């Protein structure tokens, strides 16, 4: 049995000669006076872990809006080509060569009937001194032979030659008058005009070649027919049939005018 003696009691026992063996007391944690004791809660059981879930797919964030950029200036589109728009198109500066006989050795007695008293052909030529030379000249020769005009001694060709390497500087206003003089002198049954350049220079017409081919024409009161020129036919084989139709029409005009 242990005694709980305070300091005064121990002092009295010592004065009486009584030895008191005192069992040391377990230290007591100091507490704040007047503060209530706080119960320490037992640790809570470990929380049950939820089963792992698949990670949510990453969602790409929308790209940041870009500030609108000014549109680059666009080159102006080329204006569509319009035939005969506005003023008459410029024609090359041309020189008209004097008419020359194409088949001087043809025998008049062998000339087929219905070819009339003569023909005048007006065309642009790269070899005016040799009108039947070169590829275009040879094609022209073949065309005339198909019409049997190589047997006619009075088939003339008035060549048009560009004077400034094809520079578009305007046509020679004297060409129609010079051709009218040639018609008055040679008295052909028909004037055959080959190509757009020749048609504009000889007739003063600016319509597309398709319209010029379809319509009747006159040069110094002589009937005239317009068709493709040999140089164009060399580049465009698909229009040869149309050119032959024009030549047949020219033959028909001459035959109607001179049946003998």
UniProtKB/TrEMBL annotation:
Keyword field contains Protein biosynthesis: no
Domain Uracil-DNA glycosylase-like: 128-247
Gene3D superfamilies xref list: Uracil-DNA glycosylase-like domain
Compositional bias annotation for Pro residues: 70-79
The protein, known as: Uracil-DNA glycosylase family protein
Region (Disordered): 48-83
Record bears the keyword Lyase: no
InterPro entries the record matches: UDG_Type-4/5, Uracil-DNA_glycosylase-like, Uracil-DNA_glycosylase-like_sf
Comp. bias intervals (Low complexity): 48-69
